Amino acid sequence: MTSLHINGQDHTVDISPDTPLLWALRDHLGLTGTKFGCGMALCGACTVHIDGEAVRSCSIPISVLGGKKITTIEGLAELAKRDLHPVQQAWIEKDVVQCGYCHSGQIMSAAALLAKIPKPTDDDIDRAMAGNICRCGTYERIRAAVTRAAELTAQA
Amino acid sequence: MSPLALRRFWRNPRGIAAAVLFGAAAAVTGIGYAVEIKSVPAASAPRPIQADTARSLAAFAKVASVLRNPRCINCHTATDFPRQGNDGHPHIMNVRRGDDNHGSVGMRCSTCHQDFNQANGVPGAPKWSVAPLTMRWEGLNDHDLAEALKDPARNGHRSLEEMAEHMAHDELVGWGWHPGGTRDAIPVSRDEFVRAVHEWIDTGAASPPAR
Predict the structure, then answer these.
(1) What pTM does this model have?
(2) pLDDT for B4-28, tens place per residue?
(3) Between chains, do A55 and B120 touch, taking CB under 8 Å as contact?
(4) A131: chain B residues, CB-CB within 8 Å
């Protein structure tokens, strides 16, 4: 049995300790907002936060997550203590999403960036977001939304 | 006296002076322990420097072959990014060194890499990161590489003995021999490599000629 602290709540899963977090979230805890894209840390669709840092949940086993604070897309707004996290609000304002599949990962990476760099430059955005792939090519809108989210955060 | 202690003795000017005085005294008094400059047969005379240098350079050639293996030099880069693969291409997805050699804000090394190799092929080891730029080996010729290994400012502030210890026991260094996935391990065994490091140091840590 492995205990996981996710979005402010404790969960227990009875699965192999070497199970990657992504499978625990989706298959055992019903938290399907985090997506499977590649399973090899190559696309970023599975990005969550672990102790505030962006991590590919497909590439970290639950055995190493004891005592860690895990945040998924479902818990991001709670993290900001608002109805919507500024990044989510900006994503809506800028109409970023096309098919939507990559965007939970995109949003989690953007939120991790803004938590550390509240006013990111284009270069900061490139470096933080380069690991999140969008097959629909929404990158320009993603960049605009990250900039907008920084403004919203500053206004809060 | 151990080889390392012997090396320290001969590098100490006082040690050399003491040896000269002792040798002279032995010659005068007839004590047979120390070297008598005039009468010691060539076979038992101190080993010529050239022989040590040759052994030292041969050992260093083996050391250098490991340091230039992709499993090592891909992270001892002179660039703003690590490299990947046997061809040393830039790490995909615009991965960057970052201010602290642990990646950019928002995409740290630990975003994807953990303390161990993973079943999905992502490599990992404790303290996974890029070596600092001061410890870059990329683009160095043999002379400069040897000098870098000996320079505490460029080898992580280590003495030669500490550097040898690092090569022998550090877990991230050891990853090079257990890279996981489809990556080729360093062909020279770690034991052989460490022996070569010690051989190089014990024979004077010679640097190949500068070109």
Answers:
(1) 0.81
(2) 444 444 444 444 444 444 444 444 4
(3) no
(4) 93-95, 107, 111-112
